[in-house]
Amino acid sequence: MTNNKVPFGPTYEEMLNPDTINPQIRQQAIQAAEQNELDPINLFNISWKDKEGQVRKVVLPKELTGVDANIVVMLGTYFPSGSHKVGPAYSTLIEGCVDGEILPGEHTILGPSTGNFGIGVSYICNLMGYDAIVIMPDNMSKERYERIQRYGAKLDLTPGTESDVILTLQRTYELKKDPKNRPLAQFELMPNYRFHRHVTGNSAIEAVKGIGNGRVACFTSAPGSAGTIAAGDQIKAVFPEAKIVALEPYECSTLANGGLGQHRIEGIGDKMCTLIHNVLTTDFVTLVKDDECVRGLQVVQERFKELTGLFGVSGLCNILGAIKMAKYLKLGPDDNVVTIATDGFDRYNSVLEELAERELEVTDNVLDRWYRDIFMEADTRHVYDFRGQDGKEQLFKQKEHDWLPFGYAQEYLDAMKSMEFWDSEYEKYKEYDEKIKEKRGK
Ligand SMILES: Cc1ncc(COP(=O)(O)O)c(C=O)c1O
């Protein structure tokens, strides 16, 4: 394989276990990660694992969490392009390629997003030789737009913020009418589910080896597209006692109670139940306040130097949700809560600058207070139990409300009420792996 040719990238299995990649390609990919992020061989670095094959993670210090349970955070910042969203972007594109639906030189890729997926799409399209248009709200952190443009995609902006993602979907449906355009529809397409169930889910299971009792008691994830939370399906398959928790902004509690509103946690809380969200395995919906995530990020950046740079705002949301659930479920020192930091601090400087402007003074005293109030005194309010039939019905209804208007059939949504639907969608990763190997000549 030469570097100027677009390589067909990794299989799902290789993203989970990069040590199964052809050793020469693996070696080239490891070098490219350090030398040239736009070398297409970097497709083979899409993985939670480092050079040594270990899942990149931190176990949070108890001085930060204030709970006995171990909170294990998997780190998305080390993925190519700086967030794990590059995984679903690649998976959706490669499935389209091997199915013959997306052809290089012929099709332009559309990426509806609030940022990281758009960054991932722009990056992947650069590496794989496609033109790309990222459709996103015009009020997200400026670091996001800069990166998308650096990777070469065009921007098509819709008004608003995170909570106005529905407008990006409507715009995508409009652009899709042009037969040249092919959307990577992260809210609707199953490669996002397959990537996270197989790659993130199994990596989470590996991440707790040697920690506490080596099992996962709880997994928390704040859905944007609800791709990441699919890891919960795999975790539950291996540890049936595990509780899967969807986190939402307190200010936009759509799953919990149909609430709608603006909030500051970029990447999550998109005012909908996405089509690919398997609500059958969602045990709880828990609300986290947006200001606590932004202030919590400032506390971590200032007071926990060993964690500096590793998290963004939604990472803090996932961590605060993990702390709440450890308290709510009364977990002890043997128990592990796993969660995800989708990206790192590199795209949130402007968010903390804005916080400083709003607060006027962030003194040591203020940081002490935030640390105490947000972490040490985290409470268990706003935890909603969705294990019963009523809870499931509520979430099915939300999904119908959100997706019937886009032309999906009632029968398709009804099929999603059975676990068989999800298991069979998941199993298709094996067929895609075969097709990818065939196309690239093994
Ligand atoms: C920063 C950030 N956090 C969390 C998420 C949510 O992840 P998912 O879309 O897999 O639910 C996203 C999605 O784009 C994101 O960008």
TrEMBL record:
Q: Does the keyword Repeat apply?
A: no
Keywords associated with the record:
Pyridoxal phosphate
SUPFAM superfamilies attached to this UniProt entry: Tryptophan synthase beta subunit-like PLP-dependent enzymes (SSF53686)
Q: Which residues form the Tryptophan synthase beta chain-like PALP domain?
A: 68-343
Cofactor annotation? pyridoxal 5'-phosphate
Record GO biological process: alpha-amino acid metabolic process
The protein's name is: Pyridoxal-5'-phosphate-dependent protein subunit beta
- Species name: Desulfuribacillus stibiiarsenatis
